[in-house]
Amino acid sequence: MSERADHLDFDIREQLVRPPLLRPHRHDYFQIQVSLEGDGEQTVGASVRPFAGGTLSFVLPYRVHVVSHPPGSRYVIINFSQSFWRPDLQVDALDLEDVPLSLAPELGLFLFQEFTDFHFPPEAFAEVQALVSRMLRENAQRRLGSLAVLRGLLLQLLGLSCQQFEADLLRLSAARAQQTSQHEALQRVVRYLREHLAEDLTLGDAAAAAFLSPNYLANLLKKETGKTFTELLTERRMERAQELLAHSSQRVMQIAHAVGFADESYFTRRFRQSVGLSPRAWRERLRHKMDAAIQAPGADAA
Predict the structure, then answer these.
(1) What keywords sit in the KW lines (predicted)?
(2) How confident is the model at residue 201 (pLDDT cuts 50, 70, 90)?
């Protein structure tokens, strides 16, 4: 968040502060984008949805997303940490999808962004704009008590959004509840993979961690993700490898070992099959892009 905002807890800015980030990306904080004017679109996870004026976009930490902003668009971006929003919610950001909505109803806005549009009617959007204007003013001055005021305004915005789209959120929540047992099993598997990527993992290991039979897990993965266990494991290893290439100075051999490959050459071959470049070439291309972004006027908007 320090690379995108002036404050680590909460920050809000208008579109003119930084040019938009036009490629899919993710970050470890919550984000709300408020479209004031324009006819763009947003990609969140695997879903592409409209992002016209009067629409809010709710982005969960670590969820891949990108929002297009055609010329003439006006928008506001709000970034905030989990500890700022809910200091009582002691859950890893990667496990937020396991939090029941009865504990944190506002999470539904972020969890269900892929499945619905949060487009406000004019009268309700006027309330959104009023809250956003107050946030901008309060964040600009940052005096004694400002954080409490900003948190209150943020909670009002989230509460207003929950009430405005209550029917949609309840419908999606009910549908989600029907899939809870399978979802929880898959989450246990994904969590197990994340925590043991450096090890020699098998379908039997993952099934045991999720209290499932290997045959049931294999069928569940195919049904819910369209992937085999090996395909899912490789995908997660490649994702983690990209994170380490982007955000660490570890050598390729070290990264290969960290994501479960004993042989650097085999890791390089699988990485090239996955992303189209060798690990070194991918890292070099990313660094060139980052250098170009730093040298350009302003910085990324996300």
Answers:
(1) DNA-binding, Transcription, Transcription regulation
(2) very high
Sorted by sequence, the CB contacts under 8 Å of residue 45 that are 6+ apart come out as: 63, 64, 65, 114
The second-level CATH assignment, the architecture, of 233-302 is: Orthogonal Bundle (1.10)
pLDDT tens column, 140-163: 999 999 999 999 999 999 999 999
Give the amino acid at 4.
R
For residue 20, which amino acid is it? P
State yes or no: pLDDT of 18 exceeds 90.
no
Nearest to 132 by CA among 21, 301, 15, 27: 15
Question: What pLDDT digit, counting tens, does each position of 183-198 carry?
Answer: 778 888 999 999 999 9
Q: Find out whether 63 and 5 touch, Cβ atoms under 8 Å.
A: no
* pLDDT tens, residue by residue, 65-114: 898 888 889 999 999 999 999 999 988 887 887 788 888 999 999 999 98
The 3-state secondary structure of 193-254 reads HHHCCCCCCCHHHHHHHCCCCHHHHHHHHHHHHCCCHHHHHHHHHHHHHHHHHHHCCCCHHH
Domain ranges for the chain, please list them.
10-176, 180-226, 233-302
CA–CA distance, 170 with 101 (Å, rounded to integer): 10
Instruction: Enumerate residues 6+ apart whose C-beta is below 8 A from 273.
Output: none
